[in-house]
Design a protein that fits this description.
alpha/beta; Alkaline Phosphatase, subunit A; 9-stranded mixed sheet; 5-stranded antiparallel sheet; 593 residues
């Protein structure tokens, strides 16, 4: 029998100070959070949303290097609402036993999530649209979702049926408004929620609007298991000339990546034409979402509260179509899948600003709690608040942790022509590093194949890092200097070793686990020659087995060795042990020799 990880979740009241619970400040900002499903950030979808451009991008800040940590919807959404990585929530897929709404409840998170914390602090809270996979017409009330003043949840197995969605309003039995476009249902809920929220002038509000667009059509009405999204009649035929950008990684002549990706055949013209139309349909499906953006902003402005409202726009994960020869889908660590839109407008946020400072979905829950004026114990999160106002302060780290378990999926009828649409052994650990002068994506798959992408190269350069093969002659450029690839990979692997099982502060400041003296804060710092032997001798990231979920016994080594320069210490000094996460007084010095 496969052992299961157990989780003990503390009651959510730890998060809110007594002062915050007792005295809800009357001028605290309102928050609107718009969460699309599978929206791409690399095929131009934002450029085809005029209301988003006018009201959010032109009036707010775009975070170009924002990432999801798990490129599939349910684990990513749980990370959004808890501020924890999937290996800590242990919600790692979309359906039981590894994920879905039942797993969210089983692991204690129905009593431990963002909306509930906001509600406890005095916010009116609302949610319309898709919450999680496996939130169904059968389990919607067992138990009911906590933390919402009003709700209108889409329910499986009808969630992805654009004209046959099933919903539960405020916990009532499900209904099926057959023939009504699901994004238009969402638009009506948005206006109803705003009406209710604006009538209560004593309380701020938090509204989440989660359309299924531009997710594929699933279930009734689809030809295969997945088909392009359905489009509202008023948006049919738009953008007939659009084509997916023919970037260097689009349908390349030579195979990409490792593992199953390296075996994909080149797409023929019929498939490429189909994929272009697939993306046109995705863009058309987003037009109804764009209308919601415009109508929500108009209503807030009419009510005189727009200037005191933060509006977030993002997606649960990204999407690929044709890049690396891939059929439509997600689940990979490629930039198309993990780099997602994030635009924020609100009080004091610079307009028309674009920032490349990296951030991830782990950061959004603490960010929202901070702007809501709620005291945060940041040791409970795997992320930290984003500097929305661009005023500086402590520099953000350059790293983002990436992880996935399970299988890859081709969401296309053509994916079935090349063989089974499911690609097994798609579990991997990834690390995305982004700084001003260098950027890398490094991953280790459960097959123990490794790959490295130089994201700053004029054409994104990849290296398949074969085990046992010398890398001594290969180099990469960092800060204008050529560095041996082997040396860089040693540092990246050690950092990923920390992140693959990190919790809280070790996720936010992973270099401290490797350098407790805190004299290393970045990859650039870690490249100092004095650390070469230390990194060369670190245990490397590896798997013992490919699994469909987070099984600790199959995850390989879990601990790193910390660098200790004993010249800096005396026997009376205190030393921080990153593995035990505690300070050692009068430690056994032989351990550090």
């Amino acid at each position: 029998m496969v052992p299961k990880l157990t989780h003990t979740i503390l009651a959510s009241s730890w998060l809110l100070s007594a002062t915050a619970r007792a005295h809800a400040a009357p001028n605290r900002p309102n928050i609107v959070f718009i969460l699309t499903d599978d929206q791409d950030n690399h095929m131009g979808s934002l450029d085809y949303m005029p209301s988003l451009q006018e009201h959010l991008i032109q009036q707010g800040t775009t975070f170009e290097r924002h990432y999801c940590s798990t490129a599939i919807c349910c684990p990513s959404r749980v990370t959004l609402w808890t501020g924890q990585l999937a290996h800590n929530t242990n919600v790692t897929n979309v359906n039981p036993p590894w994920g879905g709404y039942p797993k969210f409840v089983q692991n204690g998170y129905n009593d431990h999530h963002l909306a509930l914390w906001l509600q406890q602090s005095g916010y009116n809270t609302y949610y319309a649209g898709k919450l999680f996979n496996s939130h169904t017409v059968h389990n919607y009330d067992s138990p009911p979702v906590s933390g919402y003043t009003q709700s209108n949840f889409f329910l499986d197995p009808f969630t992805y049926q654009y004209y046959n969605v099933s919903t539960t309003r405020n916990g009532a039995p499900p209904t099926n408004p057959v023939g009504k476009y699901s994004t238009d249902i969402l638009a009506e809920s948005a206006q109803e929620f705003l009406q209710h929220a604006l009538e209560d002038e004593s309380s701020p509000f938090f509204i989440t609007l989660a359309p299924i667009a531009p997710h594929a059509l699933v279930g009734e009405g689809s030809v295969g298991a997945f088909d392009p999204p359905q489009v509202a009649e008023r948006h049919q035929g738009l953008f007939p000339e659009y084509k997916i950008p023919r970037t260097p990684n689009f349908n390349p002549d030579s195979p990409s990546g490792v593992n199953w990706v390296s075996n994909l055949p080149k797409l023929d013209d019929e498939v490429v034409d189909y994929n272009d139309e697939y993306q046109r349909l995705r863009l058309r499906s987003l037009q109804a979402v764009d209308e919601i953006v415009g109508s929500v902003v108009a209503r807030l402005e009419e009510a005189g509260v727009l200037d005191n409202t933060f509006i977030f726009y993002t997606s649960d994960n990204g999407y690929h179509i044709g890049q690396h020869r891939l059929h439509p889908g997600k689940t990979c660590g490629f930039e198309t899948d993990i780099n997602v839109p994030l635009i924020v407008r609100g009080p004091g946020i610079p307009a028309q600003k674009v920032t490349r400072v990296p951030s991830s979905h782990t950061d959004l829950a603490p960010t929202i709690l901070q702007i809501a004026g709620i005291e945060i114990d940041d040791k409970k999160f795997d992320g930290s608040p984003i500097d929305l106002h661009g005023i500086g302060g402590e520099p953000r780290s350059e790293h983002v942790a990436v992880e996935f378990w399970g299988y890859g999926l081709a969401e296309s009828i053509f994916g079935r022509k090349d063989g089974p649409p499911v690609y097994p052994n798609n579990s991997y650990k990834g690390l995305r590093i982004e700084a001003e002068d260098y950027g890398f994506y490094y991953s280790v798959w459960c097959s123990n194949e490794r790959e490295l992408y130089d994201m700053k190269a004029s054409h994104i350069h990849s290296q398949t890092l074969e085990r046992g093969k010398s890398l001594i002659d290969a180099t990469v450029t960092i800060n204008g200097k050529q560095w041996p690839l082997e040396k860089v990979v040693d540092r990246l692997d050690a950092l990923m070793m920390v992140l693959k099982s990190c919790k809280q502060q070790t996720c936010i400041h992973p270099w401290r686990s490797l350098h407790p003296s805190e004299n290393v804060q970045s990859l650039s710092d870690a490249l100092a020659t004095e650390y070469d032997e230390f990194y060369r001798g670190q245990v490397k990231v590896s798997f013992t087995k490919c699994e469909s979920g987070y099984i600790l016994e199959s995850e390989g080594p879990q601990a790193v060795h910390a660098y200790q320069d004993m010249r800096d210490y005396s026997p009376d000094d205190e030393i921080y042990d990153p593995l035990k996460q505690q300070v050692l007084v009068n430690p056994n010095w032989s351990l550090w020799e």
